[in-house]
Design brief:
alpha/beta, 4 helices
């Protein structure tokens, strides 16, 4: 049986990618973040390459525009096979301009 993980609020997707690289046997079924794909790529310089690797090399799923307080609107589990074994919550997005300033620091 494949171990399934979902990451919530993974900013630039670097945590999900690091998890997948370290444990390729784990299915990082969905990496969720509040931003759209275009917003993510504008905010984080490495986001384009990170998301491309997750999607193309590892064939993982990335879900954009997810509000963690309303996760059921974007992430549904309709069967036993779709359930996650672990949910990993990351630092929350505060939804203010500080995010852009923070991204520029890194």
């Amino acid at each position: 049986m494949l171990f399934k993980a979902i990451t919530i609020g993974d900013g630039d997707l670097s945590f999900s990618l690091a998890l997948k690289r370290a444990y390729p046997q784990i299915s990082v079924t969905a990496s969720t973040l509040l931003e759209s794909h275009s917003e993510l790529c504008r905010t984080y310089a490495t986001a384009t390459l990170t998301s491309k690797e997750l999607l193309e090399r590892w064939k993982e799923r990335v879900i954009y525009g997810v509000d963690a307080t309303k996760i059921e609107e974007k992430v549904t589990v309709d069967s036993e096979e779709e359930k996650f074994d672990i949910i990993l919550f990351n630092h929350p997005h505060l939804g203010d301009e500080a995010l852009l300033e923070e991204a520029l620091l890194f």
